[in-house]
Amino acid sequence: MATTPSSYARFIGRVGALAVALGLGAAIASSPGLAFAQDDDSPGTSADGGASDSGTDAGTEKPDPQTAQNDDTADDATNAATNDAEGAGPDDEPGGSSDTGRSPTRLRTKASQVTISAQTNISRKDRSADKAATSDTDTAPDTVTDTDTEAGTDPAPSAAEPAVERRAAPPVAAAVATGVRTVVTTTLSALGVNVGGITNTAPIAPPQEPPTAWAALGFVRREIGVQAQTSPLATPEQLAAEKTATRTVQTLPVLLMKMVLRHQFLTEAKRLYPDGIDAENRAALNRAVDEYAMAAAFQQQLLDSMNPKVVTQVAPPHLWFGQAVGGSRILYDNPDTVYRFMGVNGASEYVITGRFHNLDENGRPADVTFSVLEGLSGKTSSILTADDIDVDENGYFTITVSREPANGRRNHLQLTAGSTIIAARDTLGDWNSEVPMSLSIERVGGPPNSLFAQIGGFAFLGQFVSDNPLLTTLVSLVPPLPHMPPLLRGVFTAVILVVRGASEQAKYMALATHDPDTGSRRPVNEIGQPSSNAEFLANQLQSNGHFQLADDEVLVLTIDPGDAGYFVVPIYNIWTITGDYVSEPASLNIEQAKRNADGTYTLVISPTDPGAANWVATGGLNQGAVAIRFQKLDPEGVRPRIVEQQVMTHDQLRDYLPADDFVTPEQRAAQLEARREGFDSRWT
């Protein structure tokens, strides 16, 4: 019987071959004669080639996640709902809820009559037909597996010039949804009700002791009373990426690195908060480290820029389509923003295709940006806003991405030799009416796929390789692995945590306690005036600070947004991540807050509800951080500012604010219900 060599043996051989290629490349690059002969103006993607490397050619359907097989492990289907245990960890917020098995934000799965489908082509020929075919299914998509791209055997490129691939424009990834039966089954299972017979089509007699079951069924009926449209975030590649990240954080290298990070985070916090760290924030440390590791597990998947994908991350824990996904919030995440990332490199060319689903003024996101990020630091080199994008009458748009300058062209992003990531941000002001855009990306030109690219070579060394066609050719000689073993993913995730973890976290934590320009310590309960910070979105202003409040105290901020079209006031623990901003108003933006007659906004930050309409909850934290964002700025307009800020008690607040700035318990309940419904629409 024929046998197949182990994938690890093949990997060792390919690593050796890659090392030889890199050694030859270094020797050639350092040769004076060859360096003199090299044409500095020769681009890295100068010739067309017929080799295919992305794994899925344009127009070729991707496997349906319901039937796709997992390349990494054989038992992922049974572990999908439980693999999140270490990735999310026990919820260390006061209250002790767990990230595993349910979301602390109490997300609710809504029904939709759409099946998981292959990507739908939205070329100009097809855009006239604005409806995708859908069909009902009785099978929940909780068997989605991470199907790593099968690597073809690319012909070896010429040593004089790297092969270049050209592909058709990409499709937009089809949304994933689930049927009513799936919602009933998932919900009842989560409630502990035996649902083994719920799929039986034969008549079933009522249970003998039905109170719990009928109460649960009543809950489900309320949940599915209104059909919800499937979120544009629910794509097969997103579900696969979440499963891969969940497995990755369980590997030994990541578990070991989390122990190191926990010590480093705590050491830095003690330095920044010399007066001490309270018990609630100490209890939140483990969860913060878990979310940082989950974010790194997503980032590891972006290292392979030859097979780009759109990955949503920097998100809270959520439960959808049978998958319990740990949180990946880091570095002052914005509750209003949907963060999506795409891995790129300066030797390749790409096409991003997307669609705005609601072109009404109240339906498009409040702010949309595409940013090109450089190296591992994530500094922004170029940015494209919604105003720079031409959109057709059906909401579709295409963005070209390459080393070429725009030269007046719209819908174009320019890469550099060190470009690694494109970050797309949908910022939603009205959670209940604004809809995130659909996005997909395809590589349409560049060298063939390789082991060097697969393990992140362009992300770590792209600035040295992308500008040299000969080096690009040499590192592309060794083909990629057919799939990436989980342990190897864990190794590179741990490397990301080593390179970025402690130093990056320390830099962001310090923004709350120290002025980045002067280095001086910020007084407690005093938020800085809006300023530009390179660590955040390049075209926004931020106000940072930290608070220390008793349960019956409030920090009152009066904000003049000036000509800013958007601002948000979110609350963070000292580890720079948000808490449960769905069950409580732990953030308020310009659309959600009540406006004063003079155009200002008075926000009231407090650990407990003072009854104010503009209450910003701290999630019970007495100690924490604030990072206010101002976006959609007019460079020639009025600059935003914090007009007034002061600490007072709840009783004093009643005398300070007019009576109509307070709400009744019924109004507060309606506000929170609207938040839940708006947020749940992102994860259905």
Automatic annotation (TrEMBL):
InterPro entries: DUF1214 (IPR010621), TAT_signal (IPR006311). Residues 110-122 have a biased composition (Polar residues). Pfam families: DUF1214. The keyword Cytoplasm does not apply. Keywords: Signal. Residues 590-629 form the DUF1214 domain. Residues 34-168 are annotated as: Disordered. Residues 43-58, 66-85, 131-144 have a biased composition (Low complexity). It comes from the Bacteria. Residues 1-37 form the signal peptide. This is DUF1214 domain-containing protein. The lineage of its organism: Bacteria, Bacillati, Actinomycetota, Actinomycetes, Mycobacteriales.
